[in-house]
Amino acid sequence: MSQIRQFAVKSKEASQLRRRKYQLVRRYGLPENLVGGSLVRSLRRCGRSNCHCATGEGHEQWSLTLSHRGQRRVERVPREWVEDLEQEILATQTYLEAIREVMAINLELLALTRQQNRETKRTSRAKKRQSKPRTPKK
Ligand SMILES: [Zn+2]
């Protein structure tokens, strides 16, 4: 895998962001192209009276909206990036779903482990009681 072209910007700010990103990607074994949020298509009228949008359909506009730490951010997306981003959003959802499934399985394993431990304790207590040497009555 490698970085998608939509992230290929070159600047000082970008390399700082990338350093932090790959720190997280390496530490947690994350996919590097995670894309979250919702991709929205809207139709806008540009306001020019002689434009086709004044009477017909508006101009198509795409944006990606993501909330992070209570902040909502909306970014415009060029039409030619939409397919790639849709693919990454889908892959990201599949990845998050896998994480949620692992969490659910681990909860199930926790419950089963606890149940087994309780049963083991109960049977070993019962065994102890059975194997206790009886003191002969005089
Ligand atoms: Zn227009």
SSE order, one letter for each helix or strand:
HEEEH
Helix content: 40-55%
Structural class: alpha+beta
Instruction: Please tally the β strands and state the result.
Output: 3
- Silhouette: elongated
Radius of gyration: 29 Å
Structural domain count: 1
Report the span from N to C terminus: 82 Å
User: In DSSP terms, counting alpha (H) and pi (I) runs of 4 or more, how many helices?
Assistant: 2
Described by strand count, sense and barrel closure, the largest sheet is: 3 strands, antiparallel
Stretches where pLDDT is under 50 for at least 5 consecutive residues are: none
What are the bound molecules? zinc ion
Q: In brief, what are we looking at here?
A:
By secondary structure, the protein is of the alpha+beta class. It has helices at 12-28, 82-131; strands at residues 38-44, 59-68, 71-77.
Protein model, in words:
The protein has helices at 12-28, 82-131, and strands spanning 38-44, 59-68, 71-77. Strands 1-2-3 form a 3-stranded antiparallel beta sheet, covered by helices on one side. The protein has 138 residues and is of the alpha+beta class. It contains 2 helices and 3 strands; from the N terminus they run αβββα. The protein has one domain. Zinc ion binds at residues 45-46, 48, 51, 53, 59.
